[in-house]
Each structure stands twice: as structure tokens, then as C-alpha cells.
Amino acid sequence: MQIFTQFSEIRAFVKAAKMQGKRIGFVPTMGNLHEGHLQLVRQAKQTNDICVVSIFVNPLQFGLSEDWEQYPRTFDSDVEKLKGENTEVLFYPSESEMYPNGMQNQTRVFCPTMTDILCGASRPGHFEGVTTVVTKLLHIVKPHEAIFGIKDFQQLAVIRRMAEDLCMDVQISASPIARAADGLALSSRNGYLTDEERLTANQIYKSLQWVQSQLASGETNYKQLEEAASKQIEAVGMRIDYFSIRNAKTLEEAVSEDANLVVLAAAYLGNTRLIDNVTITL
Ligand code: PAF
Predict the structure, then answer these.
(1) pLDDT of residue 113 exceeding 90
(2) Pocket test for ligand 1, best of 67, 130, 139 (most atoms within 8 A of CB)
(3) What secondary structure does DSSP assign to 34-79, as a single string?
(4) What is the pTM of this model?
């Protein structure tokens, strides 16, 4: 696996590969790789000749009181995992390589749609940090396809909208949520959970599944379902941020005419913020 830290290196590599007719798949990450990330890599390798993975813990998408400093950095084990998947290229830029003019002076990409609701409501500026860094990474790597996990459903929807609005010449693809045996969605933040917290963390998924089955059996009182599911999650000691049934494309609150729904949840277990979702077509 080749590891590049400079724009100029990865650009030269991709340019040469494209001249040889190779198709480039790209998996942007913040490292601390788990099975969910490796699933993205496998998907990228299936539909492309070369898989480029990036690892960059992007400070621009963390709020001042959030866990940027604490965020796990596990470069050596990440490299081993990527080698295990026969990943061709790792792009590992420094903060000064990504933000040479400083973060405050960085030109931003702002997607007004869908960014001030759900996770955007409790993490102001988060999605602007994501869309800015993803735009930069796409400009640097210039892949044919970029793959994102469905676990971050809102992030995926925002990135799709951004790519459409900015006429980006890249295919945005999605990869299913990887889960632990008890259903908990895999996330780098699961590592923050104590052993005791870990035992109840899958309640979010259990409640999402319960709502999914209620919707499938014809329940149409969305507010009541959201409230009941929130109570189930709070009953095991979590603090609900949101539990919401939405239109899967626009992320607007679901109405009875909507056929494609997503049920999204975010909750705090101790200091750890967990998110998850399920989709349903009625
Ligand atoms: O999902 C993530 O890991 C990050 O938000 C991303 C897309 C790599 C941008 O920093």
C-alpha cells in the first residue's frame, strides 16, 4: 500500500492511474477503522480498479466542546487493517496540508438544505465542516466514485445534495450499516462506552426496529411512535437528542403520503453520543 501525505503526490498518482484507464474509488475516513470502514473499502474495490482511503480527523467538523482531541487516532493498526484489505493507496494529510491558510480563513462549502435539523441542530457548524472537507478531498483525489456509510444517514443525504448542487463529477455511493452481534451500529465512538454502558447501547437499534415493525404493520401516528420509542431509550438511562420519522430523501418530517421513510435517532449514553437509523418503504 502506498501512503501519501501531500496533495501533489496523490494527485500525480491518480493522474497516472487514470491515464492507464484505471477507475478510482475513494473512501474518506477519520481513521480508527472498524469493520464498517472495511466494508466501504471492499465495496470500493469491487467497483473500481484502485481504492484510495483517506484518514484525516477533520477539526472543522467538531464543535468547541466536542471530542476532537479525544477522538481515537490509531494510525498503525489502521494501516495494518487497510493492508489486510489490499488497499492500494492511503492519503494521510496533516492539518497544515488540508488547511494551509488556517481553519478560520478556509473557504467554506455550506449546504443550506438539511443541515440545521437533526444532528445539525445539536452540532451547529458540523455539516459545514463535513461538506468543506469532503469537497476538498474530492478535489484532491478526483475519484470516479466516493463511498459513504449509511450509518451517517444525514451526512450522506447532505453530501448527495452538495454533489448534485455543485455539479460534482463523482458518483456518490452508500454502504449498509455494519452492526455488532447485538445490533449496535459500529462506530469509532463506541470505544468511549464503559463495559456497563455497552450492555444497553443497542437499545437505540431495538427501538428503531420496533418503530420499523409498527410502520410496516400500518401504524400512521408518527408522533406517538416517536414518543414511545424515545421513552424506551430513556428507560435504559440514555438521554434522547432526537428520535424522528422522516422522508428519506428530503429529511423533512414524514407525512402520510411519503412512501420512503427513514427513522433516525441520536442519544447520549453517559458522555457518548450515538446515532443510528433504519429505512422503510411502505
Ligand atoms: O464520516 C466521516 O468519517 C467524516 O465525516 C468524513 C466523511 C470522513 C469527513 O471528515
Answers:
(1) no
(2) 130
(3) -HHHHHHHHHHHHH-SEEEEEE---GGGS-TTSSTTTS---HHHHH
(4) 0.97
